[in-house]
């Protein structure tokens, strides 16, 4: 087992419904610790850069519009095997495919408005954390 950090976003569909506290409770109930957190309004440039890997996908422009449509909460989560642990807590991208009790099964509206983002590998976790946080903002 390894102590890891992962990057999380509580997306605009969730901030719009005022359920960030519910989602944080699900994160903390899983054993993960929120070691940095801030509420921001992502710029179009940030959203395009953050999701650049999806630039060729048909849903890219919709995704950028969604992610800039309202506030988000960006977070750093810490815990044992945090990257995979958080992916498990989030559930599948499409809430219809997500396991019972996962954040996306409980809260997501559809495959795009799916309430949360979590890094998918250690390299992306490092780069995504750096994208939004400086070292002194993270208090483990
Ligand atoms: P994730 O790692 O589970 O978030 O999934 P991906 O990296 O594949 O996709 C990034 C985000 O793009 C997802 O969380 C969704 O918000 C959105 N997305 C993924 N697939 C689709 C799709 O087929 N249609 C739409 N509209 N959005 C999608």
Give a brief description.
By secondary structure, this protein is α+β, with helices and mostly antiparallel strands.
Write the layout of secondary structure elements.
Layout: E1 3-10, H1 12-16, H2 20-29, E2 33-40, H3 44-50, H4 60-67, E3 72-80, H5 82-90, H6 103-107, E4 116-118, H7 122-132
Antiparallel strand pairs: 1-3, 1-4, 2-3
The chain binds guanosine-5'-diphosphate (GDP).
Guanosine-5'-diphosphate binds at residues 59, 62-63, 93, 111-112, 114, 117, 120.
Bound molecules: guanosine-5'-diphosphate
Low-pLDDT stretches are none
Q: What is the alpha-carbon Rg in Å?
A: 14 Å
Summarize model confidence as the mean pLDDT: 98
User: What composes the largest sheet?
Assistant: 4 strands, antiparallel
Q: Choose one word for the global shape.
A: globular
State the helicity in percent bands. Answer: 25-40%
Percent range for β-strand residues: 15-25%
Number of helical regions: 7
Helix and strand string, N-terminal first?
A: EHHEHHEHHEH
Structural class category: alpha+beta
Q: Span from first to last CA?
A: 18 Å
Physical arrangement of strands within the biggest beta sheet: 2-3-1-4
Instruction: Write down how many β-strands occur, each being a DSSP E stretch of 2 or more residues.
Output: 4
Task: Describe the protein.
This protein is α+β, with helices and mostly antiparallel strands and 140 residues long. 39% of the residues lie in helices and 20% in strands. The protein contains 7 helices and 4 strands, in the order βααβααβααβα. The chain has a 4-stranded antiparallel beta sheet with strand order 2-3-1-4, sandwiched between helices. The longest helix is centred in the last third of the chain and has 11 residues, at 122-132. The radius of gyration is 14 Å and the shape is globular. The relative contact order is 0.26. The protein binds guanosine-5'-diphosphate.
């Amino acid at each position: 087992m390894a102590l890891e950090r992962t990057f999380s976003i509580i997306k605009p569909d969730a901030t719009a419904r005022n359920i960030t506290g519910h989602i944080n409770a699900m994160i903390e109930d899983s054993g993960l610790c929120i070691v940095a957190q801030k509420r921001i309004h992502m710029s179009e440039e940030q959203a395009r850069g953050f999701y650049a890997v999806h630039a060729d996908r048909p849903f890219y422009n919709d995704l950028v519009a969604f992610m800039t449509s309202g506030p988000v909460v960006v977070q750093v989560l810490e815990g044992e095997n945090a990257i995979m642990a958080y992916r498990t807590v989030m559930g599948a991208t499409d809430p219809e495919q997500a396991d019972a009790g996962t954040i996306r099964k409980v809260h997501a509206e559809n495959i795009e408005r799916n309430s949360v983002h979590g890094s998918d590998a250690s390299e992306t976790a490092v780069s995504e954390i750096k994208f939004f946080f400086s070292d002194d903002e993270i208090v483990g």
